[in-house]
């Protein structure tokens, strides 16, 4: 307060060293009795108002001049970026270049079409492709960026549309799905029930049937038609036996339901145990035999049947890849799809060996070991953690359709 040293000592002794006590002395009173440089304005209210008004105007002008300054390059409406793939050219509206180390500047398409609009039972099932995926730009330009983006995306809430991270995947219509599949001699799924559900979802897309596309509805009883309808097609308790394993079965039993103009061949080999039974290996070798000179794609899925033991999964994979290579050499491409995240219905007895921590570690470790063997890896933990699961393990129809579309994006970017 500008008091002298003697005043300070007196104050300290009189207040018992109270550090929040301020001493008022005659010298401090005299200090504030001097005129200030603005004392000439003191008597006039008008002058005060003028000064305040000037400050207000200057501050307002400064604020608006700063807020109008562009923070980035201007966006040019209608600009397009073309990202070529092997079959389809992905085109979308773009604002700024994408960086692989940064999250992309997302521009969503509010008016994206519902690719299920013409599907059978679309109104009864009340499922739109817009419920599953909200498209944005840029589209991932190659397999590496596509797999990374699809594996590391997320949802804004439970069962919200899934969005890859950094760049987007394509959501193909049925005609595009047919065109992609027809480029291959065959697409083979090898693994557990999760891979069977991918086959079922692909059949929904090629049959244009959201109600019964994944199941053998041509031989259903009245009870099965009721139990295995729409979202319940993937209920492993009531409808697992009725799942479609091969598109060739559809061709022979209900050929008019396939919308593809060209031949397609998608099949499933359920191989889950290690050691692998000899008859299962013989069946795989017979099914993998090429029928044309086109490329073959193999999608693997494994893990829960051996409690996420990476060494056992690797042994399983080596036996199968050796069998495939023995039949067709190196004329095939592989993708390993790791298991779904655990849901709240998963029994408590499995929460340690097959809970979300174990699943995340398994996904990371398997991704590293299969890549070293020339097989690409698609993680599904991020995609499935906020998706509905019947038993805490298996996704419903909506989640499986997203997974199938992720596989279709990988197939689209393969050179076949």
Question: Mind explaining what this structure looks like?
Answer:
This protein has two domains: 5-59, no CATH class; 136-412, Rossmann fold, CATH 3.40.50. Helix 6 crosses helix 7, helix 7 crosses helix 14 (397-412) and helix 10 (278-288) packs across helix 11 (310-328). The model is unreliable at 1-44, 66-85 and 89-106 (pLDDT under 50). By secondary structure, the chain is of the alpha/beta class. The strands form three sheets. It has a five-stranded parallel β-sheet, with helices on both faces. It has a two-stranded antiparallel ribbon with strand order 1-2. Strands 3-4 form a two-stranded antiparallel ribbon. The protein is globular, with a radius of gyration of 33 Å. It has 14 helices and nine strands. The chain starts with a helix and ends with a helix. Helix 12 (356-371) links the parallel strand 8 and strand 9.
Features:
416 residues; alpha/beta; Rossmann fold; 2 domains; five-stranded parallel sheet; two-stranded antiparallel ribbon; 14 helices; 9 strands; globular; disordered N terminus
Q: What are the SSEs and their pairings?
A:
Layout: H1 5-14, H2 26-31, H3 45-67, E1 80-84, E2 89-93, E3 107-108, H4 122-125, E4 136-137, H5 143-151, H6 174-181, E5 184-191, H7 193-207, H8 222-227, H9 247-253, E6 266-270, H10 278-288, E7 295-301, H11 310-328, E8 332-337, H12 356-371, E9 376-378, H13 381-384, H14 397-412
Parallel strand pairs: 5-6, 5-7, 7-8, 8-9
Antiparallel strand pairs: 1-2, 3-4
Transmembrane segments: 48-66
Keywords: Membrane, Transmembrane, Transmembrane helix
